[in-house]
Amino acid sequence: MTVTPLRPLAEKAQRASLDVAAELSLAFAQTAAHYDASTEFPHENIRQVHAAGLTALTAPVAFGGRGANLAEAAEVIRLIARGEPSTALILIMQYINLATLPASRWPAHLIARVIGDAVNNGALINALRVEPELGTPIRGGLPATTARRVADGWSISGRKIYATGVEGLTWAIVWARTDEEDVRLGGFLVPVDAPGFRIEKTWNPLGMRATGSHDAILEEVVVPLDHAVDIRRPSEWDVRGEGQAAWFGMLPGALYTGVAEAARDWLVQFLQNRVPTNLGQPLSTVPRIQQAVGEIEELLTVNRRLIASAARDIDEGRGISQSEAGLIKVVTTENAILAVEKALKLTGNHGVSRNNPLERHHRDVLCGRIHSPQEDTVRVGAGKLALGL
């Protein structure tokens, strides 16, 4: 009897997931312009992701998931983002939650229920944290959303903004404070079909237009007592723990690298086919153009290598600090933005025409600066750490 080593089996599964993601990317690219123009939620894309077995990619095998590590998840996100980045952002939130829930303080039966729902039904989950007055909790402050103790559990009321993917969610982890004298705050697990939970369609951004990141309004939404899945005193919270910080550092960079690669692909085709009359040959033959494209390749290569290296360290137990994860997010998103801006410089009016996808890629990639952790908080934190403050 021949025993096949575990590593080759794992590598085969990873190749399979990347092959599937590449195929999905090509399909999603065909409708990306439609979703961008309409701001419709990409339900069909999500359906195809689930049919392809990628909805629960990062859920542990013990729960029925694929058990993918961070390096594999980052590659899947990069590939899908080349086709349609809003779909990729929705999956980022899914992958982070499914990967980190088993090690959380949640009740075991709720972990099993949520992950099982993702595995079997393609159910999506995300945390709803940002508020009109609060902004993002990563900058500090208490949420206005309040959970009040009632006979049947908790009654939650409040408004969340920029709720990524809310149109397609089954589960929401709502960041709220309690009405107790000794205030606690944290995550409350809320089914989005619960009475009192409604969506107000406010999402009309420059880029990443299909994420369905509308406002979520909770009006006396009642959940069972144990759905206060992780609430603590404010002083006990590190708003984003080391585990999630690593994933939030790598996956947005992978997404926007994918967007920049899509821009690069269109640019290469344009330069190969564009033959100005005064030149008499394709623009791709001009040394100055070749050097500029090389600069784009430099930025993308650095991104891919940096993300892959850091993700491998994390997967192999050589963790990185929250500060380092944030710096990687900032560097890779800024590199992606610069790569697309260089492409725009080479194409002139063609690049900003809505008849071509490059202007859409530009609008999408600019959104990399918005995601937490943002540049100022990352660099201030890194500076204080270096200065011993």
Automatic annotation (TrEMBL):
GO molecular function per UniProt: flavin adenine dinucleotide binding; oxidoreductase activity, acting on the CH-CH group of donors
Record-linked InterPro entries: Acyl-CoA_DH_C, Acyl-CoA_Oxase/DH_mid-dom, Acyl-CoA_Oxase/DH_mid-dom_sf, AcylCo_DH-like_C, AcylCoA_DH/ox_N, AcylCoA_DH/ox_N_sf, AcylCoA_DH/oxidase_NM_dom_sf, Mito_Isobutyryl-CoADH
Acyl-CoA dehydrogenase C-terminal domain location: 253-372
The Acyl-CoA dehydrogenase/oxidase N-terminal domain, residue ranges: 28-94
Residues of the Acyl-CoA oxidase/dehydrogenase middle domain: 144-221
Pfam families documented for this protein: Acyl-CoA_dh_2, Acyl-CoA_dh_M, Acyl-CoA_dh_N
Keywords tagged on the record: Flavoprotein, Oxidoreductase
CDD domains registered for this protein in UniProt: ACAD
Protein name as catalogued: Acyl-CoA dehydrogenase
